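Subject: for your reference before the review

Hello V.,

The reviewers asked for a structural picture of the protein, and I figured it would be easier to keep everything in one thread rather than splitting it across files. Below is the amino acid sequence we used in the manuscript, unchanged from the supplementary table.
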Amino acid sequence: MTSQKKATVVSSSVAAVLTLIKLVIGFASGSVAVLASAVDSVLDMFVSIFNYFAISKSEKPADKTFNYGRGKIEALASVIEGTIITISGLFLLYQAVKKAILGEVSQYLDISIYVMIISLIITISLVTYLNIIAKKTNSMVIKADALHYKTDVFSNLAVLISLLLVTFTGYEIIDVFVGGGIAIYIIYSAYELIHEGVLVLLDRAVDENLVEKIEEIIKANDKVNTYHLLKTREASNQTFVEVHLVFDCLITLMDAHRASDSIENKIKKLDEKREWIINIHMDPYDDFKMNDLHH
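And here is what came back from the structure prediction:
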């Protein structure tokens, strides 16, 4: 089992435990904030399970049907995860408004406080673990999972503070505001997941700084006269690069090939954590300018 799959199994298991505890306490206490945290944990569990299958599919090698692999499944998973988080945020916002209107009162606050302290400790440990795996694998799904659980840390802390304030002041409106605030924060955090996933699905180019470094490597090779049609995109931990290199028309194919290999190897060394898929087309003259003249 890969480290990415292990990470999703760990996060799914943690979410399942937290879900069970929070749901019981949330419904028993009547606290919107605890219930909000419980619903978020339910979604965490299902999302982590979904991520496990997304990673399993994305890791399959390219074949006759999917010539470029299935890396974009991770981006699709990120969009779906963000959408689910948004829906959960809207539900929690509804629950907060409902409690404010009906004037419901929280119960079992002492037990709820202990539950949130335990939940906070577990979630911080999980986020630390997921961040380590995300840096190691550069997986979009694990990054999304880490971001998701990072929002849980803040929401769990907010719920804990809310319960303490309600206990000492007796003002239930604090629970309503904290629950509603968490809901809004959840919706806001989901936007980045959806935005990033959609950009990958639309084949956005890699970071501009990385593109500039690739261009510098190409320009530094004295065998290359110029270049054009440099294209980049990402899918999962794969980075695709396409470029047309223009050589002198009298250069041997062997020398042009060696120069291309040298450029390709230097590009791969820019980030050895990435899986680079580089496609270089060798031109004997700048046909890009010729095409411009014809059009």
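For the response letter, the relevant points are probably these. The chain has a mean pLDDT of 81. The radius of gyration is 25 Å.

Happy to draft the paragraph if you're swamped.

O.
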